């Protein structure tokens, strides 16, 4: 299994793969994974198959599995990282010994109805497609053997199938305006019609969250009560303005008391990313879907420093600052240009505030005072401005 998605993980508790056998196949043994059920194997005496179900469900083995049950790229608990962020851990493998399947490529039938849960819904798998047989090179690299048959199955993801409501939102602020644009109200649902009673906990009562058993990634949502009710909020703050540069601060806040995010990532679209000069405490990789267009960046935390987004509370946030060089032909603070066009968190599209609510530059219509001392006063004012902003 290869995760070719550039910025979407398959997180714990991991993937679940299923299919339907075309005939009366059984699984005699497995390496690197196991089925969740054995099924009815009563007709077999002595040597009993690993699974006799018509539609087996396969899960990955956990780290620490004995070596005699492992193969390469197995035993990660079903976790697959994104292709850009961690390509070394973007693949998973397991081996199946199948019985009653046939002996030649004329008698073997391809399974059908493939399903992938990662760990919930969202993926839709196409039919198995027979491709050129896989070739294997021996350890001494002097001989090549060939598989009897190889087929590929491609599964695509849809955020609309994965969850009914969004999972993140964006808030905005700037140094030139006192207005803080919060996430839209009920961006990810409302408090009065949340999924379950008690799934919203006020910040003052956050000590109740510590009593929740097993704070794991498959726990039910237990959110801090907010107007937007989103598990994650990304705040974009236009912090400083220099002569040739401008500075942005990004803060990611986790409002979920029952969920941590390991190896999180952001995808941000802004036209000034082609002039990104310096990044503090985040990793950066440009995403260029079109040649010559560099307006999209992927950001993620530094390993062992801020790649882990803790659950809601005092430590439930990560932040960094970005320094951009100005391009005189495009740069402006007017009409919300300094704010991102779109933001994704862990591959999910975040809800943006409406454009007419963005912080705007204050109106400045005062006429300059004509004076003999005006040039001197202008120079002094410029010096103070630069000193305050360096």
UniProtKB/TrEMBL annotation:
Compartments reported by the entry: Cell membrane
GO biological process: cellulose microfibril organization; plant-type cell wall cellulose biosynthetic process
Pfam families: COB_C, COBRA
GO CC annotations on file: plasma membrane; side of membrane
InterPro entries per record: COB_C, COBRA_pln
COBRA C-terminal domain residues: 167-359
Main location: membrane
Keywords associated with the record: Glycoprotein, GPI-anchor, Lipoprotein, Membrane, Signal
Family assignment from sequence similarity: Belongs to the COBRA family.
Protein name in the entry: COBRA C-terminal domain-containing protein
């Amino acid at each position: 299994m290869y995760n070719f998605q550039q910025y979407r993980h398959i997180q714990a508790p991991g993937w679940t793969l299923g299919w339907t056998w075309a005939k009366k196949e059984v699984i005699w043994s497995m390496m690197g994974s196991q089925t969740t059920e054995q099924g009815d194997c009563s007709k077999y005496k002595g040597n009993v198959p690993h699974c006799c179900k018509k539609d087996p469900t396969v899960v990955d083995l956990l780290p620490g599995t004995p070596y005699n049950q492992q193969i390469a790229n197995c035993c990660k608990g079903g976790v697959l990282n994104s292709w850009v962020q961690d390509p070394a851990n973007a693949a998973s493998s397991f081996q199946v010994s199948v019985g009653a399947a046939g002996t030649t490529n004329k008698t073997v039938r391809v399974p059908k109805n493939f399903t992938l849960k990662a760990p919930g819904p969202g993926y839709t798998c196409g039919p198995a497609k027979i491709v050129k047989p896989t070739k294997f090179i021996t350890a001494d690299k002097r001989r090549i053997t060939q598989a009897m048959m190889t087929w590929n199955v491609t599964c695509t993801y849809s955020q609309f199938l994965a969850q009914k409501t969004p999972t993140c939102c964006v808030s905005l602020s700037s140094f030139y305006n006192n207005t803080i644009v919060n996430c839209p109200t009920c961006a990810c649902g409302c408090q009065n019609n949340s999924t379950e009673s008690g799934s919203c906990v006020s910040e003052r009562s956050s000590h109740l969250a510590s009593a929740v058993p097993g704070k794991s990634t498959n726990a039910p949502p237990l959110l801090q009560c907010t107007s937007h009710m989103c598990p994650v909020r990304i705040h974009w703050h236009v912090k400083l303005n220099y002569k040739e540069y401008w500075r942005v601060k990004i803060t990611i806040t986790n409002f979920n008391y029952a969920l941590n995010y390991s190896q999180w990532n952001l995808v941000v679209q802004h036209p000034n990313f082609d002039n990104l000069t310096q990044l503090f405490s985040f990793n950066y990789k440009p995403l260029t879907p079109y040649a010559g267009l560099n307006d999209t960046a992927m950001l993620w935390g530094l390993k062992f420093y801020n790649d882990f987004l803790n659950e809601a509370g005092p430590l439930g946030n990560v932040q960094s600052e970005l320094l951009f060089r100005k391009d005189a032909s495009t740069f402006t603070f007017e009409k919300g240009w300094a704010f991102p066009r779109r933001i994704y968190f862990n591959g999910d599209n975040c809800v943006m505030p409406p454009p007419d609510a963005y912080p705007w530059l204050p109106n400045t219509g005062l006429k300059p005072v004509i004076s003999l001392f005006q040039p001197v006063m202008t120079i002094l004012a410029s010096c103070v401005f630069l000193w305050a902003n360096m």
